[in-house]
């Protein structure tokens, strides 16, 4: 019909179909279809061949035939104009154009999905489809994805990330076979974009950033520990002098005061969350058989009624006093406030049975939630709590026996052992599986008690140098550190199998008779606290009021090569050295009694202060 209309209205040479095509091919422009020039109108008027003007009047004479001809000619010209711009075939998705194609720098995802849906379904159809302006696109698509015949390639600006992301999408999967419930079956736009998971990409990047943040923070904190970079502050101020402190997860800490009270505090907010005033009766005498041990803890001040030990795990709190036994408490909902100062009473759950006539000196929770109780009668008793019940019913599991009274205890879940410091100056190892005694080692002179004990991971750094690269591996080397009442500190290397991560029960200590174990310099007073915030470093606290930070890392071994077991053991002994003193934190407390750490902060208490002091090593 278009060709008939063009032939009908183009009866004159100026508007004939051959003339129109010739002008388009030569000038790439359209002729003047919407009206003849003045010169042509004048010539045709003279010759009497004008269709619109009569011989006697300049005004046009409109008839039905003329109106139809005008409308037909203009419609035909409009259709011819669109024909000159381009003809698009939906079936083959191929564009034919007489003029240059329009370049889209921001392609629409809907156009992208439409093009993919109507793309050829077989390689033969794709090969048969060709056009003057898709050769370069086909070449690029073949280079980027030779196996994907249906890949859609779009010309994108260099800085258009969205366009580039869409052009690199993999559409090898058929949408008809996709059963994703998030997209309707006929929703082609959703199916075209479902492979681009921007949210998943952002979440993965967020996890990666958080991981990098944690790693950088750990590196910064470790650097601060080794270079004495910290911020000192008062965590909380109580109404009584503080005697003991323990922490489970910062900033929640539990502490015992001189009058036998127990407080649960928030060290960031500087507030008391819960408390049990005079939890341990100050009028009670020291339990029989525990006077000597009690005097070691509090320098013979028999009028001091402070607790012997405290511990916390979650909402469960335990404490022991001079009267003997262990009391355990439950911290309720923080929203339930019953006191004017904003704190609430701890819910008393009773006493652990079987310990009422024993002075308990040490309380520790392991990673399983079991409570280990060190006693002055030379026993370690282990209890589990039924957290399903509201009363946390304790159940006794087993008991370990030692030669003398236990003054301190440390549990190392990583290698499955514990160690305790005894009144006779020994450091004794025991198994965390059944509490059985393994072996002990005497470290101090006769009459000098072992006051505190610790297990450290010395974190050996091994640099293996190849031809072009150097890799750093961390190897675990474990040691027992024990502080005495005379201010001396000893270090004993442990025999730990690197493949199993367990201690050799037959020969647990890697020492000989002539192996030096004492590290220098010694403290002026009893070593009442030992903590290790990170691998290769530990802190000793003295009752004289100062902390000393030690570098116990095994050292750097470069260009490590395989050798026999005898040669490697000799090299270990030669390269192994005692810990070095890095720096002291002095003037913190007039008389240090207790300290603990969460790996990033050091929390300490003194005998003549109602405050908890926090040294924060996380600051940049």
UniProtKB/TrEMBL annotation:
- Pfam families, alphabetized: WD40 (PF00400)
Q: Can you name the source organism?
A: Ditylum brightwellii
- Report the superkingdom from the record: Eukaryota
Q: What is the lineage of its organism?
A: Eukaryota, Sar, Stramenopiles, Ochrophyta, Bacillariophyta
- For region Disordered, the annotated ranges are 121-148, 560-581
For this UniProt record, give its keywords in alphabetical order, as a comma-separated list.
Repeat, WD repeat
**Annotated protein name in UniProt:** Uncharacterized protein
């Amino acid at each position: 019909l278009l060709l008939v209309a063009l032939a009908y209205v183009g009866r004159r040479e100026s508007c004939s179909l051959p003339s129109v095509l010739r002008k388009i091919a030569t000038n790439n422009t359209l002729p003047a279809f919407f009206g003849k020039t003045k010169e042509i109108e004048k010539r045709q008027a003279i010759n009497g061949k004008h269709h619109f003007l009569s011989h006697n009047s300049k005004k046009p004479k409109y008839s039905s035939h003329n109106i139809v001809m005008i409308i037909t000619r203009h419609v035909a010209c409009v259709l011819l104009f669109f024909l000159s711009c381009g003809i698009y075939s939906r079936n083959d998705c191929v564009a034919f154009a007489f003029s240059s194609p329009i370049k889209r720098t921001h392609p629409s995802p809907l156009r992208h999905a439409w093009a993919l849906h109507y793309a050829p379904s077989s390689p033969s159809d794709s090969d048969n489809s060709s056009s003057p302006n898709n050769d370069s696109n086909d070449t690029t698509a073949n280079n980027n994805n030779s196996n994907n015949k249906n890949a859609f390639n779009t010309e994108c600006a260099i800085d258009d990330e969205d366009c580039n992301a869409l052009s690199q999408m993999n559409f090898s999967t058929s949408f008809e076979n996709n059963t994703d419930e998030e997209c309707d079956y006929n929703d082609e736009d959703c199916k075209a974009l479902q492979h681009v998971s921007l949210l998943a990409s952002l979440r993965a990047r967020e996890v990666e950033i958080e991981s990098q943040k944690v790693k950088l923070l750990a590196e910064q904190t470790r650097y601060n520990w080794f270079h004495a970079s910290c911020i000192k502050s008062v965590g909380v101020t109580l109404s009584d002098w503080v005697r003991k402190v323990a922490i489970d997860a910062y900033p929640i800490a539990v502490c015992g005061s001189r009058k036998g009270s127990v407080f649960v505090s928030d060290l960031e907010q500087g507030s008391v969350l819960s408390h049990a005033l005079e939890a341990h009766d100050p009028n009670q005498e020291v339990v029989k058989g525990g006077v000597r041990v009690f005097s070691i803890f509090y320098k013979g001040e028999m009028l001091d009624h402070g607790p012997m030990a405290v511990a916390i795990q979650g909402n469960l709190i335990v404490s022991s006093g001079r009267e003997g036994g262990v009391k355990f408490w439950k911290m309720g909902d923080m929203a339930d406030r019953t006191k004017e100062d904003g704190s609430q009473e701890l819910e008393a759950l009773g006493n652990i049975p079987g310990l009422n006539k024993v002075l308990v000196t040490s309380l520790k929770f392991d990673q399983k939630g079991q409570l280990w109780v060190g006693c002055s009668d030379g026993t370690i008793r282990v209890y589990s709590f039924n957290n399903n019940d509201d009363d946390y019913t304790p159940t006794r599991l087993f008991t370990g026996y030692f030669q003398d009274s236990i003054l301190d205890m440390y549990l190392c879940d990583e290698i499955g052992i514990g160690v305790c410091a005894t009144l006779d100056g020994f450091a004794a190892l025991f198994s965390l599986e059944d509490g059985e005694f393994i072996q002990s080692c005497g470290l101090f002179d006769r009459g000098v008690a072992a006051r505190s004990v610790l297990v450290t991971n010395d974190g050996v750094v091994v640099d293996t140098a190849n031809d072009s690269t150097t890799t750093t591996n961390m190897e675990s080397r474990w040691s027992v550190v024990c502080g005495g009442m005379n201010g001396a500190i000893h270090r004993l290397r442990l025999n730990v199998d690197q493949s199993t991560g367990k201690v050799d029960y037959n020969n647990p200590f890697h020492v000989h008779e002539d192996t030096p174990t004492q590290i220098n310099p010694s403290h002026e007073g009893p070593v009442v606290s030992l903590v290790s915030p990170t691998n290769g470093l530990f802190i000793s606290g003295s009752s004289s009021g100062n902390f000393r930070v030690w570098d116990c890392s095994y050292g750097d071994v470069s260009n490590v090569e395989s050798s026999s077991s005898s040669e490697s053991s000799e090299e270990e002994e030669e390269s192994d050295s005692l810990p070095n003193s890095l720096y002291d934190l002095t003037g913190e407390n007039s008389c240090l009694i207790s300290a603990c750490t969460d790996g990033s902060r050091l929390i300490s208490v003194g005998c003549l202060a109602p405050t908890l002091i926090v040294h924060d090593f996380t600051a940049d």
